[in-house]
Specification:
This protein is α+β, with helices and mostly antiparallel strands. Helices cover 34% and strands 35% of the residues. It has a single domain, classed as Nuclear Transport Factor 2, Chain: A (Roll). It has a six-stranded mixed beta sheet, covered by helices on one side. A hairpin with a 5-residue loop joins β1 and β2. The longest helix has 20 residues. The radius of gyration is 22 Å and the shape is globular. The N terminus is likely disordered.
Length: 155
């Protein structure tokens, strides 16, 4: 009877484990490729100065930190920032240097650099570096949760 009870309990444990539902995990290599593609699309939209095309890539609760400025919080405020700032630029270019994905596959961080020129500006473009945190949302899409941008020293 003791052997039978042990077998029943073992079977119940195995059955419970088989029935447990978890969100499917994406491999870190696949996640990195997804983030890299999203980053490419964001950079292309920013280069075109297309604020509307950038916004689907931002999380509702995202935050942006620019060097020496108050934090910009929330997707709506970030959209206003893009609408105000992008048209004032002559050129904007962002380039990713690296993308790392957390082992759980739900967060990634990207570093890179930007170069900006203003209309009628003389001299080289203004450059900066960025750190972006990407988060995989409930709908399976990667969105920017946080971005910090700091100016490089003038040379």
């Amino acid at each position: 009877m003791k052997v039978c009870r042990t077998a029943v309990m073992l079977g119940a444990v195995l059955l419970a484990g088989a029935c447990r539902r978890e969100a499917p995990r994406t491999s870190t290599a696949a996640a990195e490729a997804e983030v890299r593609e999203a980053s490419r699309l964001v950079a292309e939209a920013e280069t075109r100065k297309d604020a509307l095309a950038v916004m689907p890539f931002w999380a509702e609760d995202a935050v942006v930190h620019f060097n020496g400025e108050a934090a910009i919080r929330g997707k709506e405020a970030i959209g206003k920032m893009y609408a105000e700032r992008l048209p004032r630029l002559d050129t904007f270019r962002a380039e990713s240097d690296s993308i790392e994905v957390a082992p759980a596959g739900d967060l990634a961080w990207e570093t890179g650099s930007t170069a900006v020129t203003l209309p009628n500006a003389s001299g080289p473009p203004s450059t900066s570096k960025f750190l972006i945190v990407w988060r995989k949302e409930a709908d399976g899409k990667w969105r920017i949760a946080a971005c910090a941008l700091t100016a490089n020293p003038k040379t």
